[in-house]
Amino acid sequence: MDMNKLFRYFIQGSIILTLATSENNEPWVCNVFYISDKDLNLYFLSGKKTTHSQHIKKNNPVSVSIYDHESNFDGVHGAQMTGTVKELGLLAAMKVLPKFKKVFGVKLTKVDLKETMGSRFYKFTPNGVYYRNSKKFKGKQEVIL
């Protein structure tokens, strides 16, 4: 299996990413549950008032890290990515909602997204990817999107 296929399999099989944002030279990092699509965009649900959501509004470039937490020192397996995030509107969120519900078993409805929770779906689009699977390859490899 080639590196790009391994990377796709890895991203689609993972569910937690670490998101790094910043504003006014103040960094922030958090973990969020995510799902992916066939184009390797990552979607996560987050409250509009969270620190990272506020940062995204004001300073959009972000970094993401995803790691296989079962890895040992000799078997590092993970990815680091740079990209942009946008808040999804209600129609776009409704397209993401069924897969999110299936993967995580959450009971969200259109009403929840619009009125109750104050949460929104966000879409991370990578523009740079480095992938490491030390059992298959030596060093980090750049993934061409």
Summarize this structure as a short list of keywords or feature phrases.
alpha+beta, 145 residues, 7 strands, single chain, Pnp Oxidase, Chain A, six-stranded antiparallel barrel
What does this structure look like?
The chain is built from four helices and seven strands. It is an alpha+beta fold and 145 residues long. It has one domain: Electron Transport, Fmn-binding Protein, Chain A (Pnp Oxidase, Chain A, Roll). Strands 1-2-3-6-5-4 form a six-stranded antiparallel beta barrel, surrounded by four helices.
Order of helices and strands: HEEEHEEHHEE
By DSSP (H or I, 4+ residues per run), the number of helices equals 4
How many E-type strands? 7
Q: Assign the CATH architecture.
A: Roll
Strand order of the largest sheet: 1-2-3-6-5-4
- pLDDT under 50 segments (min length 5)? none
Total discrete domains: 1
Instruction: Estimate percent helicity.
Output: 25-40%
The 3D shape can be described as globular
The main pleated sheet reads as: 6 strands, antiparallel, barrel
CATH topology: Pnp Oxidase, Chain A
Category by helix and strand content: alpha+beta
Mean pLDDT: 85
| CA-based gyration radius | 16 Å
As a percent range, the share of strand residues is 35-45%
CATH-defined superfamily: Electron Transport, Fmn-binding Protein, Chain A
- Distance between termini? 17 Å
